[in-house]
Amino acid sequence: MSEAVRVVIVEDDTWLAEHYMRVLRRSGYEVYHAPHALAAIDVIDQVVPDVIVLDVLLTGTTALALLHELQSHEDLANIPVILATNLADQIALDDVASYGVRRIVDKASMQPEDIAIAVRSVAKP
Amino acid sequence: MEAAKGNNNRGGSNQSDLSSVVVAAHELKSPLVLMRQLALDIASGKLSNEEQRRVVDQLVHVSEKGLRLTSDLTRAEAVQSVLFDMQPVNAISVCDDVADELAGLYNAHGRSLKRSRIRALPPVVANRDLLRRILVGFADNALHYSDIDGVVELHAQLLRDKKLVRLGVRDYGPALSNKNWRQLVRNLGATQPVQARPQSSGLGLYIAHQFAVSMNGRIGAVRHRDGASFYVELPISQQLTLL
């Protein structure tokens, strides 16, 4: 039996994070949560996830700072990142692709299962 | 490190009015987005009974948060043109009201709002409703910035030399960066919403400032290594000393 795909959710709204976790666990993913960027670095370092779901406007520091940090670590730089954000209409995928971002999901219009679909689309088989 | 502002600059322009509307719209977007996701989750029929009860509870709290914001916005607009009743107010009982009002919300987040360092205080000159709204706003905000399973504290203390009472909310979460702190200090008394923390639009601080100024008070903030305190200072009532 193959190991479950590990997903780290970096989202400071704990109830939205809980919602993502419910949806992803239903789809069979192993899910971890970090409420802010500093906690995320620890969790990502520990779990070394297959996919990161990242909110853009985070408590303490922004997602970009976290993306910079991830890019500076060889073992973490290639983890695909999904941005789940209210600012989807203001961010072009081409502008953030060099930071490992593979998908941008618009929180305002997404369906609950979209987060699982996005994870499936970027997770390596 | 501490910063406070209490200037009474109520000047406005169409441009700043428009900015305020944009910020208000942005601020309301988060609870609406969450409510939509939770509602869709319930509609999916995939939740257990226990999960469904929890999600319904969250929906209620999130909608109440949104409603508080719209009510505060209306009130903040009104304080610029209407005089409010000012009277001696027992600040401790307002803290008690705030803790009781938010107990359910904090409990739903697995956190607690505690009253600490609150001793006997003289009454302050205030409008009870506006003071309650300021503290509810601070405590609501602190919930977002406190660590999971964490405690948020309501403080009240007498500043004897200034004849003021300071009522504050202390959170324990990620420290504010120097950049964010400088921005916050610059903008505590701004006449339109300004960003106070990365995730924040600053609307809450703007509203609190409007309410505080209308009561001849001021708001301020203290940065700690492990979080921040936001407070309002109000003059103590001299009424009893006149008897």
Strand order of the largest sheet of chain A: 2-1-3-4-5
Number of helical stretches of at least 4 residues of chain B: 6
CATH superfamily of chain A: Response regulator
**CATH class type of chain A:** Alpha Beta
Q: N-to-C terminal Cα separation of chain A, in Å?
A: 13 Å
Q: How big is the Rg of chain A? A: 13 Å
What is the multimeric organization of the chains shown? heterodimer
Mean pLDDT of chain A: 90
Q: Please give the largest β-sheet of chain A.
A: 5 strands, parallel
Q: State the strand order across the main sheet of chain B.
A: 1-7-8-6-5-3
Q: What coarse outline of chain A follows from CA principal-axis ratios?
A: globular
Taken together, the total number of domains of chain A comes to: 1
Helical residue percent of chain A? 25-40%
What does this structure look like?
The complex is a heterodimer of chains A (125) and B (243). Chain A has 125 residues and is an alpha/beta fold. Chain A has one domain: Rossmann fold. Chain A has five helices and five strands. Chain A has helices spanning 14-26, 37-47, 63-71, 93-96, 114-122, and strands at 6-10, 30-34, 51-54, 81-85, 101-106. In chain A, strand 1 (6-10), helix 1 (14-26) and strand 2 form a beta-alpha-beta unit. In chain A, helix 2 packs parallel to helix 3. Chain A is globular and about 30 Å long. Chain A starts with 5 loop residues before the first strand and ends with a helix. The mean pLDDT of chain A is 90. The termini of chain B are far apart. With 243 residues, chain B is of the alpha+beta class. Chain B has a six-stranded mixed beta sheet with strand order 1-7-8-6-5-3. Chain B is built from six helices and eight strands. The longest helix of chain B is centred in the first third of the chain and has 31 residues, at 49-79. Chain B has one domain (2-10, 80-242): Histidine kinase-like ATPase, C-terminal domain (Heat Shock Protein 90).
